[in-house]
Write a structure and sequence with these properties.
about 35% helix, three-stranded antiparallel β-sheet, flat, 1 helix, 3 strands, alpha+beta, about 70 residues
Length: about 70
Amino acid sequence: MADIPALTQFSLSENEDGYLLQLEADDGAALTVSASPEQLDAIIDALVALLEDEDEDDDTPQSADPAI
């Protein structure tokens, strides 16, 4: 599998149909997509859920013994 470029910048702007989401990668690639308000809400919900999962993982006590 080819290396996946890292996200270096993003921007979000409003247009007449909803929103424009612009993503730029460290290899110079750029992508602009139009998103409806409902799609943007779904993206936000997914990011919040992902961050909440990370917070829960950080709060879970870890055992020094991986077998436990």
